[in-house]
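[retry 2/3] Prepilin-type N-terminal cleavage/methylation domain-containing protein: previous attempt timed out, resubmitting with same input.
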Amino acid sequence: MGKRSLASLLRIHVRRVNRGESGMTLVEMMVSLGIFMLFSSMFVASVVSFTRATTASRLRSVSSSSMTTASQRIERMVRYASDAAVDPSGDILTLYIPGEAATKANVGTTGVGQCIALTYTPATWSGDTVNTYGTLKWQSRDETVSAFTDRGALLSSLFNNESAAPTSASGIYRQKMFALDSATNTVTFAPVVGGYAGGQALTSNTVSRFPVGNAGADPDWTIAKHCP
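[retry 2/3] Prepilin-type N-terminal cleavage/methylation domain-containing protein: success.
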């Protein structure tokens, strides 16, 4: 007996129903089950695809928003600073903000010069995957005291690690967090923020440059003198 098409089986079933015959043959049940499984698998695949797309969109949105907020905060501090320094690793940015400018920058005690330290703890990598995300925190102190006060995290879920990020990964992961152009008194901030969805890295990054706003305004407004 030749193989019957799905349309042929459906026609036979309709004729049987019209004749008043009830029930279904084993073949008809298997065909019905096959159709149900086909549509079920298509539905599940659509749901999974939608969920992944939604997760990725939400992750990118959160990363971009947090990065923008941190950049604006750092830009404000650098703009009112009179001196800046970056350590060789690019993980620590130190700023001195004179008294009146510190009030405008809304950091520390009103009218008192501020020593600011932004410290990045690099991400750790395991193979081509981030094992522990990096965190950027900041501290401040009045220039008249020696102890810094922790101000919390400016940014988290960071991928940057100049030395540990694998060469097979994107080059942006190996960027230094901070850099300073002493000729133009410009601070560069280059974070890479993100996470993983479905085993894939989803990141947002930026390279922002901020001028040290009060550089050269007074030769005494230096880190060496006020933030030893």
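[retry 2/3] Prepilin-type N-terminal cleavage/methylation domain-containing protein: DSSP finds four helices and twelve strands in the chain.
[retry 2/3] clearing retry counter.
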